[in-house]
Amino acid sequence: MPKLQGFEFWSRTLGGARHVVAPMVDQSELAWRLLSRRHGAQLCYTPMLHAQVFVRDANYRKENLYCDVCPEDRPLIVQFCANDPEVFVQAALLAQDYCDAIDLNLGCPQMIAKRGHYGAFLQEEWDLLQKMIQLAHEKLSVPVTCKIRVFPDIDKTVRYAQMLEQAGCQLLTVHGRTKEQKGPLSGAASWEHIKAVRKAVAIPVFANGNIQSLHDVERCMQDTGVQGVMSAEGNLHNPALFEGRSPAVWELVEEYLDIVRLYPCPLSCVRAHLFKLWHHTLQVHQQLRDELAKVKTLEGIAAVSQALKLRCQAGVGLRESRCVEDMSRQEEGAQPAGDLPFFHWICQPYVRPGPREASKENSGSSKRALEEEEGSMDGLSKNKQKKQLRNPHKTFDPSLKPKYAKCDQCGNPKGNRCVFNLCRGCCKKRAFKETADCPGHGLLFKTKLEKSLAWNGTQPRRQEPPQVGSGAPGAFSEVLGSALA
């Protein structure tokens, strides 16, 4: 069949999907995608996969895609991060039979993306991106799509989107934040940027950012004219977001754990999801927060969740049989604590604190501050206490730490017996360059060379065979004649 493109691909292959679950590292695994699909999601992305690792490691392919095949998990788009056209296409070729499209991540703003030179840190390298998209568009049997972040300037963002479209991108997801907008500095996403891109390109566009409820989804589509809306953090705190519901947390937790039992995933993923779903309740029941962090089995996590459920129900004086609607109609005058729109045991959005609010929170209620308060008499954090349990002789007093002499070249600790007063790395380079030895670092370039020369000198010289066309006349004939005789 010919490869579908643009709006035909969106309407036929993706079924005109409007409610989309974003690619989320360690969070959009198969079990979570199935839960989201049960509650209104029409299209899901895999977590971001590293193209180079996907090509070289068969186990990585098996664990992250090949074993996560499920008929209900379609349509599905596999997302890769990459910075090399050939590697990106090789990875995509290995994945294309398990999905409906391949997405190139151009939106990750995290430090790991900066170090690996991928994600949003490629957005200035237009020539490279053109090559990657063009090659994938030519070689793959499925369409190639992109997820991008915006530039501060709307015109540059529009030109960026048009460049990707011309290179062969068949669907564009636009996150309305710049790569600098992350963590406490996230701020609001710019729907104006998304609207400008939608008007400037002739391919389907998904919007991402500021989505906390179904009302936000409808308003975003109306204001920007996009074909679909993608949710990440909103979906993590309320997987029923696209249904327009805010159910009790335990309802979705129990459903998710049932799916995990059918389609297992790493325990770290399960724990992370429950921390998000129970986020507001765990601010109330801190002891159970610690228990959730410590349990080592799926059944242990389920037990902590059940304990949270019972505490919430006991707190409002209701039995398990009572429905959520009855629970929300509590006695007159009862109001949610703090600034929450619903009671803490109801799935609801999480609003990131701004820089000032975050600094206030960190001053007294941050994880590190709490750890130090709960620490031992020596004021050690929990992490340091664990290290000391493993090694009772370990000290964290800076004045007691051993002082190391520094390498003359790079500043790293030098070898105590190095003949050049260097660290091992610098010593190796110098010893190789000068054909010298450093017994302190076990480098014997000079000794090995001398042994090699001595060994070559003791070997008898091999007699070279006569060559055709050289030597005295008739020499070859004599050798041939004697051989025949």
From TrEMBL:
<keyword id="KW-0560">Oxidoreductase</keyword>
<comment type="function">
    <text>Catalyzes the synthesis of dihydrouridine, a modified base found in the D-loop of most tRNAs. Specifically modifies U16 and U17 in cytoplasmic tRNAs. Affects the level of some mature tRNA and thereby the total cellular translation.</text>
</comment>
<dbReference type="InterPro" id="IPR035587">
    <property type="entry name" value="DUS-like_FMN-bd"/>
</dbReference>
<keyword id="KW-0819">tRNA processing</keyword>
<keyword id="KW-0520">NAD</keyword>
<keyword id="KW-0285">Flavoprotein</keyword>
<dbReference type="Pfam" id="PF01207">
    <property type="entry name" value="Dus"/>
</dbReference>
<keyword id="KW-0963">Cytoplasm</keyword>
<keyword id="KW-0539">Nucleus</keyword>
<dbReference type="GO" id="GO:0050660">
    <property type="term" value="F:flavin adenine dinucleotide binding"/>
</dbReference>
<keyword id="KW-0288">FMN</keyword>
<dbReference type="GO" id="GO:0005737">
    <property type="term" value="C:cytoplasm"/>
</dbReference>
<comment type="similarity">
    <text>Belongs to the Dus family. Dus1 subfamily.</text>
</comment>
<protein>
    <recommendedName>
        <fullName>tRNA-dihydrouridine(16/17) synthase [NAD(P)(+)]-like</fullName>
        <ecNumber>1.3.1.88</ecNumber>
    </recommendedName>
</protein>
<dbReference type="GO" id="GO:0005634">
    <property type="term" value="C:nucleus"/>
</dbReference>
<dbReference type="InterPro" id="IPR013785">
    <property type="entry name" value="Aldolase_TIM"/>
</dbReference>
<feature type="domain" description="DUS-like FMN-binding">
    <location>
        <begin position="21"/>
        <end position="281"/>
    </location>
</feature>
<feature type="region of interest" description="Disordered">
    <location>
        <begin position="458"/>
        <end position="485"/>
    </location>
</feature>
<dbReference type="GO" id="GO:0017150">
    <property type="term" value="F:tRNA dihydrouridine synthase activity"/>
</dbReference>
<feature type="compositionally biased region" description="Basic residues">
    <location>
        <begin position="383"/>
        <end position="393"/>
    </location>
</feature>
<dbReference type="InterPro" id="IPR018517">
    <property type="entry name" value="tRNA_hU_synthase_CS"/>
</dbReference>
<feature type="region of interest" description="Disordered">
    <location>
        <begin position="354"/>
        <end position="397"/>
    </location>
</feature>
<keyword id="KW-0521">NADP</keyword>
